[in-house]
């Protein structure tokens, strides 16, 4: 599909125009100091891009996950890193689909105006990992409040967010009919929680991706911050996870296209032994293969987004889109680094930074092995392996 016949070209052009004010040099400098791209996220917010999913009645654009994924894709394709702000996109779905009218009226307009950031989701725990039903963090009802105790790990953007979606166990596992029951979702005001029952410990990591370990010791949350029904949180969180995987797939597609554009230009210009290295099939074929796989992943991404926006089951499509896109972007990254030779390791070329960033998606937000296990069980009907 060319830009001329892309039904979303106007949206893409708007995001590209904004990103043009934040060239790769900007993100390179932020990465070098392990900082946060505040100016970039503020610009996205003021332009309304991060309010894409918020209905117009609350001050947003009323768009779908399809459009949200395109916004994130274009950020990565421009050389940026949407990981600094993508949480607001997929976390929004939990509040939109399952929040009360009062909760939406209280929070959504402020988020749309940029006065509040909802960029963090507290689910993963050290002992549970991707076995979400095994989480041990508890929230016990005491009068008009819930008291939270426990621990979370690999929780992103806590230090640059005002609100966090939190999953905690409100009914002991042994008192629930299923392991996935008895879990509840809360909206945590981080401005009140940090230092008052919640401790944040940053985790240094390979990617400049602000992530943390959280400790809860008697954190009190108003009962009115419970989202939906108590005990139904696992089902609610799946909606957010499907949106997350579709949006991450789009980001990987953006990464992959950045790598392919970068290496294609370089291979056409770099002359060794008297001819462009791009004339060699050993260079051409890995690039072409990555391009083909990206195009296939892109189709699956749009199928997952369409199903999500239509309210149809999309777990298989979202997982497969994330798998295909992460794999394709990683192959494009390897080709780009390999054919840049030593220059691929030089920070000024941005290849090594983007290489590190896209490698994350082989592991998170769900590992490739877990996706394969999901497809084997839920799509192919094979016996559960875990």
Summarize the structure.
The chain has 386 residues and is of the alpha+beta class. It has helices spanning 9-19, 24-32, 38-46, 65-77, 87-98, 101-113, 190-193, 233-269, 281-309, 315-340, 351-359, 368-379; strands at residues 118-122, 138-142, 145-156, 163-169, 183-189, 198-202, 211-222, 226-227, 271-272, 275-276.
Report on the structure:
- This protein is an alpha+beta fold and 386 residues long.
- It has 3 domains: 3-113, Orthogonal Bundle (Butyryl-Coa Dehydrogenase, subunit A, domain 1), CATH 1.10.540; 118-232, Butyryl-CoA Dehydrogenase, subunit A, domain 2 (Beta Barrel); 235-379, Butyryl-CoA Dehydrogenase, subunit A, domain 3, CATH 1.20.140.
- It has 12 helices and 10 strands.
- The strands form 3 sheets. The chain has a 4-stranded mixed beta sheet with strand order 1-4-5-8.
- β9 and β10 (275-276) form a beta hairpin.
- α8 packs antiparallel against α9, α10 (315-340) packs antiparallel against α11 and α10 runs antiparallel to α12 (368-379).
């Amino acid at each position: 599909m060319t830009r001329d016949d892309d039904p979303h070209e106007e949206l893409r052009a708007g995001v590209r125009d904004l990103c043009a004010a934040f060239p790769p040099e900007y993100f390179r400098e932020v990465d070098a100091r392990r900082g946060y791209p505040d100016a970039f996220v503020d610009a996205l917010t003021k332009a309304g891009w991060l309010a894409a999913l918020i209905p117009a009645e609350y001050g947003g654009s009323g768009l779908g996950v399809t459009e949200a994924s395109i916004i994130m894709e274009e950020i990565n394709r421009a050389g940026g890193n949407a990981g600094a702000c993508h949480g607001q996109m997929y976390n929004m779905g939990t509040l939109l689909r399952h929040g009360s009218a009062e909760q939406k009226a209280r929070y959504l307009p402020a988020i749309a105006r940029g006065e509040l950031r909802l960029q963090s989701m507290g689910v993963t725990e050290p002992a549970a990992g991707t076995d979400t039903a095994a989480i041990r963090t508890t929230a016990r009802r005491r009068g008009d409040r819930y008291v939270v105790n426990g621990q979370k790990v690999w929780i992103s953007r806590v230090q640059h967010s005002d609100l966090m979606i939190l999953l905690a166990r409100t009914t002991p596992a042994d008192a629930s009919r299923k392991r996935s029951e008895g879990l509840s979702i809360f909206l945590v005001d981080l401005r009140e929680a940090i230092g008052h029952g919640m401790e944040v410990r940053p985790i240094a990591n390979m990617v400049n991706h602000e992530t943390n370990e959280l400790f809860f010791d008697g954190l009190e949350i108003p009962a009115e911050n419970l989202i939906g029904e108590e005990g139904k949180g696992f089902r609610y969180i799946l909606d957010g996870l499907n949106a997350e995987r579709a949006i991450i797939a789009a980001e990987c597609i953006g990464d992959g296209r950045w790598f392919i554009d970068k290496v294609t230009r370089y291979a056409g210009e770099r002359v060794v032994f008297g001819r462009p290295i791009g004339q060699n099939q050993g260079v051409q074929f890995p690039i072409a293969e990555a391009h083909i796989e990206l195009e296939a992943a892109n189709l699956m991404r749009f199928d997952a987004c369409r199903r999500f926006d239509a309210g149809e089951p999309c777990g298989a499509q979202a997982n497969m889109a994330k798998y295909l896109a992460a794999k394709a972007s990683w192959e494009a990254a390897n080709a780009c680094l390999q054919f840049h030779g030593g220059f691929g390791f030089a920070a000024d070329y941005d290849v090594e930074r983007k290489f590190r960033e896209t490698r994350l998606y082989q592991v998170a937000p769900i590992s490739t092995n877990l996706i394969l296990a999901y497809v084997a069980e839920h799509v192919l009907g094979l016996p559960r392996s875990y």
